[in-house]
Amino acid sequence: MLQFVLRRIAISALVLWAGSVLLYFLVVNSGDPLDTLRQSQATNREQQMAALTERMNLDEPWYVRYGMWFGGASKCLILACDLGTDRGGSDVNTAIVAAMGSSLRLVTLATVIAIVLGVAMGVLSAIRQYTAFDYTVTFVAFVFFSLPVFWAAVLLKQYGAIEFNNWIADPSVSLVTTLLIAIFFGLFASAITGGDMRRRGLAFGITAIILFAFITIFDSIDWWVQPALGPVLVLLLSAVTMAFFLMLTTGLRDKKVLITGGVTLAVGLVVYFVIQPVLNEPNWWLILGLAVSTVVVGGVLGYFIGGFEKRAAMTVGIGTALSFGFYTFFDKLLTNWGGYLDIAGRPISTIGSGTPNFNGNFYETIWDWSTQLLLPTIVLTIISLASYSRYTRGSMLETLQQDYMRTARSKGVSDRVLNTRHALRNALIPITTIVAFDFANLIGGAVVTESVFGWTGMGALFQAGLKAVDPNPVMAFYLVTGTAAVIMNMLADIAYASLDPRIRR
Fold first, then answer.
1. For residue 219, is pLDDT > 60?
2. At a CB cut-off of 8 Å and minimum separation 6, what does 102 contact?
């Protein structure tokens, strides 16, 4: 395995080097960096041209300039990168570090969400092949797959930023809009529920009525400006999450696992009231410590209550505890939405990667960060969501048709165990390759997304360098994205080995 990884690293390094040579050659020959100064009428035009020529080494052949850049970039191996300066004399190292913080934050979050949702949709679609749910997921996946990035970004900017700011000035939902929302999600629930017409009609009716009731109540109490979940909704949402983890493990057949989930909910409800003063002014270290404590408590409850199903009980306990903690934190976050509106005012900033000199508390700062992260994240997520769902569906269907799956089913293994413990693990092996390439592709797609939403990330750095015929910023972008692609491929190889032990040999 080590020899294989080292060989892959060597090949990837060779490809990175060849790509850098080609890109540098294309950039320096894409235009004249002195063109703007040549058209200038300034009296010191010649001095400016001479200074820029000296700063960018324009009097040297392109391969000599590339050698200078490569010499500085190779120092990254000893963590002493020297990526030179841009045409204005600013340090590219400083610029790329700042840009990486914005772009990688955006791309990483979009990748994680796309993987979780895409794989879940693909698995359920394969298990319920040729049902209404399968057709619905297929339709949504192809719609997302066919959306041009720039068009989706512009639509979200219009309706998710401009129209939202108009609505939040006097937030209210009309009766017609409430009915349309309830009917839409009712139809969606009916499509994913499956079964006969009676069951699907029941799903439609329950979903539509509950959603209509909630929107009406929220509108009457002005929830859109002063939102909160409260202990009842936190408990209800945590119970739904517990049911999900039960479905993935033992179902309802093992009472001790079920009791573990119930005890975890009871403990969480007590902690909800006890921890409120602590959450008034937290920091990230406190949140991290509480999360670790939550995992420990859920695991301990599962270990001592689970009996013979300790592993399943610990999974249910930890999952339920973490969900209760998340909903508790989200409830506190919602209660600070009104304070954020008072500070931010209108229009709420949804363009850019952060509000300069924003002065708010812990939760209000998160809202400022989230409102600007939400829309570009959605754009990048839908780019990958369709691919993950379709590849997972195909891989899952192929795995379910294998002989060992039929053998396990003939031995009496339940469908839940077959799907979660056997089929899913083997079906994920091809997906690891897609994840590796998709992460690098998303960084490239972020160039367009960042441009539409005004993010000062690596996309802006790349575009500025390209327009100015300045190779150093462009090469810094390539260095980061190329290295990310290599690292993700290495992680894919390791994931292969962990998912399929045969590869280790």
1. yes
2. 353, 450, 455, 456, 457, 458
